[in-house]
């Protein structure tokens, strides 16, 4: 009989690049480096090549271990969908380390499955609500900062006195933007951007 395997799945966004905490937790759980799958994603791109490879390798009775429930998906619907793919289609098990109740190897009877499903739905909803609250708090913080006069984005570079003369020469075609930039000690893109701002 084929030995059942235990896989670890790690997901981090490009904003939060520190996967070390998840890696250490999975290693301590007994998962080898070769059985860990890691995806680093940007906020807009949720294509998960490592996750898809792991799903392909999953066999009946294998176990997927994640540090927390939100590693499985971005939102409530996605977490439930991936949970069902792993447990129902693949007939594999899931262990959520942060929530011992979410260990499908335990309580395989009807009551155990029911409790697991209820806890999963509740936690998925809480995870999504918390993300939405964080986004709302960030938006409110930015709005309040703007009202106080806080400027966002890159700080505008102050142009030296020679800028006006060089920009006039550039407009007349006497000098290139690169030459003007070199004389001012800035890139030609910065020179052109500031010329455009003065128009």
Automatic annotation (TrEMBL):
Domain of life: Bacteria
DNA-binding keyword on record: yes
Presence of the UniProt keyword Transmembrane helix in the record: no
GO molecular function: DNA binding; DNA strand exchange activity
One BP annotation, GO: DNA integration
Record's keyword terms, sorted: DNA integration, DNA recombination, DNA-binding
Protein name: Recombinase family protein
Organism annotation: Lentihominibacter hominis
């Amino acid at each position: 009989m084929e030995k059942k395997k235990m896989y670890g799945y790690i997901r981090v966004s490009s904003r939060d690049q520190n996967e070390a905490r998840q890696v250490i937790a999975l290693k301590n759980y007994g998962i080898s480096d070769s059985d860990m799958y890691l995806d680093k994603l940007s906020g807009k791109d949720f294509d998960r090549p490592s996750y898809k490879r792991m799903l392909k390798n999953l066999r009946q009775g294998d176990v997927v271990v994640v540090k927390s429930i939100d590693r499985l998906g971005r939102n409530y619907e996605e977490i439930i969908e991936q949970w069902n793919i792993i447990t129902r289609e693949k007939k594999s098990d899931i262990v959520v380390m942060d929530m011992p109740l979410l260990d499908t190897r335990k309580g395989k009877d009807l009551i155990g499955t029911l409790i697991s499903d209820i806890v999963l739905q509740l936690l998925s909803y809480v995870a999504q609500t918390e993300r939405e609250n964080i986004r709302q708090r960030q938006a409110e913080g930015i709005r309040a900062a703007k009202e106080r006069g806080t400027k966002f984005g890159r700080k505008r570079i102050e142009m030296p006195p020679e800028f006006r003369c060089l920009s006039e020469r550039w407009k007349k075609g006497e000098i290139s933007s690169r030459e003007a930039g070199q004389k001012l000690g800035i890139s030609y893109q910065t020179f052109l951007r500031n010329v455009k701002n003065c128009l």
